[in-house]
Design a protein that fits this description.
The protein is mostly helical. The chain is about 70% helix and about 0% strand.
Length: about 90
């Protein structure tokens, strides 16, 4: 196994990220999502969980092979963009 952050294998981090995504799929839904429609609803309802799914894919790719680090970086950046959209939608755009 390829060692990752804090000496733990990347696949362990992928599992943790998937667990967090699962929790946010059922319990971390903002109250404002109930009143939202369209794209705003999707981002508020699924944005945080999708961020963690993208991070899990990033970690899994890093754990699979070192030559996939470039693709993992792109997936991680997509997760960052998704989180930024979630935060902007939740706290700025009304």
């Amino acid at each position: 196994m390829i060692k990752g952050f804090l000496g733990l294998p990347w696949l362990v981090w992928a599992g943790v990220a998937l667990l967090i995504a699962l929790v946010y799929s059922f319990f971390g839904i903002p109250k404002s999502a109930e009143l939202a429609v369209g794209l705003r609803f999707f981002i508020l309802r699924w944005g945080h969980a999708l961020t963690w799914v993208l991070l899990a894919i990033n970690f899994a790719l890093r754990g699979a092979a070192p030559n996939l680090d470039g693709l993992a970086n792109v997936i991680a950046a997509a997760g960052g963009v998704m989180y930024l959209l979630f935060m902007l939608t939740a706290f700025v755009v009304k």
